[in-house]
């Protein structure tokens, strides 16, 4: 399909400074057939006021829910239920997009294929420079000198072939799932209320179990992750991993607590 409609979902929690930079990068996308949904796992007045003040050249809406703990999958499903586009693209509110980001996903759209890529993790100095300027695509030399990681993922090689991957390692911050596939697996599993596996690893195995393919857009789909301190969540991840392992053993790709409740 040429020119598929895209819904870009951005999951956020309170950080409007980062979100502004992300929205600025969306405003200069070369592909134009898209709408944006900001999915807030909370209900912050600051976030609401910020979004209400936005004036971007694209359709932007905002979904919230009560702030009672980690329920990212629930707000993701809320956004999906309110979207009708052909392709759902998922990013986080700290991921700045290369101007060709959505154009790339549109180019390789296939209703039976999940597309994904990784991200370049910016260092503190480069992130600060970006946030304090109009810069969207940082210098590769500066990223290397400042010790950003996965800088190789910031290179675009448009002529590089893409292939199906048996073990894709999806990241919830950079993946595109056709509406058809999302409804075939019943969306995200809301049983995951602890960070770790729910929004990417779980949906990955269910997509593969349902018989769909995943293709890697490394060197095609580029995004930059803004620097921030990361909490040690190993205890939480262990709990999430146990839930994941149990569900995977059961082998039911159509989750019970998803877009519809079974």
Number of strands: 10
The biggest sheet, with number of strands, parallel, antiparallel or mixed sense and barrel status, is: 7 strands, mixed
User: What is the averaged pLDDT score?
Assistant: 95
Number of helices: 9
- Multimeric status of the protein: single chain
What is the helical fraction, as a range of percent? 25-40%
Instruction: Return the CATH class.
Output: Alpha Beta
Strand content: 15-25%
What is the third-level CATH name, the topology? Spore Coat Polysaccharide Biosynthesis Protein SpsA, Chain A
Structure description:
There is one protein chain. The protein has a seven-stranded mixed beta sheet, sandwiched between helices. A three-stranded mixed beta sheet has the order 5-10-7. It is an alpha/beta fold. The chain has helices at residues 16-27, 45-53, 72-81, 101-107, 124-131, 140-145, 179-184, 201-209, 234-250; strands at 6-12, 34-40, 59-63, 87-92, 95-97, 113-116, 120-121, 175-178, 213-216, 223-225. It is built from nine helices and ten strands. It has one domain (6-250): Alpha-Beta Complex (Spore Coat Polysaccharide Biosynthesis Protein SpsA, Chain A), CATH 3.90.550. The longest helix is centred in the C-terminal third of the chain and has 17 residues, at 234-250.
């Amino acid at each position: 399909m040429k020119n598929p409609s895209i819904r870009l979902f951005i999951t956020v929690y309170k950080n409007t400074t980062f979100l502004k930079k992300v929205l600025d990068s969306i405003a200069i996308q070369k592909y134009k057939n898209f709408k944006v949904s900001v999915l807030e796992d909370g209900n912050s007045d600051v976030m609401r006021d910020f979004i209400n003040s936005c004036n971007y050249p694209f359709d932007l809406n905002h979904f919230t829910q009560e702030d009672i703990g980690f329920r990212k999958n629930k707000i993701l499903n809320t956004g999906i239920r309110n979207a009708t586009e052909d392709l759902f693209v998922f990013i986080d509110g700290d991921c700045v997009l290369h101007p060709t980001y959505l154009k790339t996903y549109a180019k390789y759209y296939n209703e039976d294929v999940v597309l994904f890529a990784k991200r370049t993790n910016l260092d503190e100095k480069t992130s600060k420079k970006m946030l304090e300027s109009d810069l969207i695509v940082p210098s590769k030399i500066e990223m290397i000198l400042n010790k950003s990681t996965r800088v190789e993922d910031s290179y675009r090689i448009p002529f590089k072939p893409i292939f199906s991957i048996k073990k894709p390692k999806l990241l919830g911050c950079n993946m595109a799932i056709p509406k058809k596939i999302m409804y075939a697996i019943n969306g995200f599993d809301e049983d995951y209320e602890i960070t770790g596996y729910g929004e990417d690893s779980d949906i990955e195995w269910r997509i593969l179990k349902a018989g769909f393919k995943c293709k890697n857009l490394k060197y095609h789909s580029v995004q930059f992750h803004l620097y921030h301190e990361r909490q040690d969540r190993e205890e939480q991840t262990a709990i999430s991993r146990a839930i994941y392992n149990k569900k995977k053993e059961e082998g039911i790709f159509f989750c019970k607590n998803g877009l519809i409740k079974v």
